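// run 5 | inverse folding | seed 20
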């Protein structure tokens, strides 16, 4: 029974976590013609440290000279209008409990006082999943199916109303492609 279970390798990716309040994700509406040069991505991890949330951003193009560039987030914050992200090498981040998690924020790349490019993002729609653990696959002979169970830290968190997991599987031996459920 378990031998059959082990014959299958399973991969999960969480596509996105959607909060009940905010409706659909509003992904990066580019607002600047120069955006190509400074295109960037951001993701959040909520409640990483008590009530503190983490926002991480970086440029797509790792060759960009980031020396004088800053990231700033404005709007949908609790007590302040804007926050400037910290920088560690080419990664920008901020850990804070100021995110309102309702509505969307403007995240801008700044050169001095000038906004080079901005994206409008809702922090609660760009949540990056934490890796699942305790993955078990059991073949159920009677039903001729596989029962997949796993644990994921984000499942316990109160901000999550709806999580979608993608599951892909393939036989461990052979050349077959992944099948996505
Ligand atoms: C930047 O990278 C993100 C994440 O890898 C990707 O989703 C996005 O499409 C990229 N944007 C551009 C303009 O290449
Ligand atoms: C840059 O963008 C932020 C956030 O949208 C805005 O509050 C600020 O006024 C902009 N600054 C300039 C110089 O346009
Ligand atoms: C796997 O996918 C590739 C590309 O879609 C296809 O060329 C190949 O025939 C597939 N292999 C099998 C065993 O289905």
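// decoded
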């Amino acid at each position: 029974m378990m031998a059959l279970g082990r014959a299958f390798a399973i991969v999960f990716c969480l596509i996105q976590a959607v909060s009940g309040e905010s409706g659909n994700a509003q992904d990066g509406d580019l607002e600047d013609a120069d955006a190509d040069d400074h295109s960037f991505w951001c993701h959040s991890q909520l409640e990483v440290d008590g009530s503190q949330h983490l926002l991480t951003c970086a440029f797509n193009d790792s060759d960009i000279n980031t020396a004088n560039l800053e990231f700033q987030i404005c709007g949908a914050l609790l007590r302040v209008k804007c926050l400037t992200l910290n920088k560690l090498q080419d990664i920008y981040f901020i850990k804070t409990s100021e995110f309102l998690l309702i509505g969307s924020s403007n995240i801008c790349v700044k050169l001095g006082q000038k906004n080079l490019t901005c994206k409008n993002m809702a922090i609660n729609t760009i949540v990056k999943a934490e890796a699942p653990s305790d993955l078990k696959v059991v073949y159920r002979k009677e039903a001729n199916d596989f029962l997949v169970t796993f644990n994921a830290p984000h499942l316990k968190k109160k901000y999550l109303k709806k999580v979608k997991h993608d599951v892909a599987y393939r036989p461990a031996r052979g050349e077959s492609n992944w099948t996505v459920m």
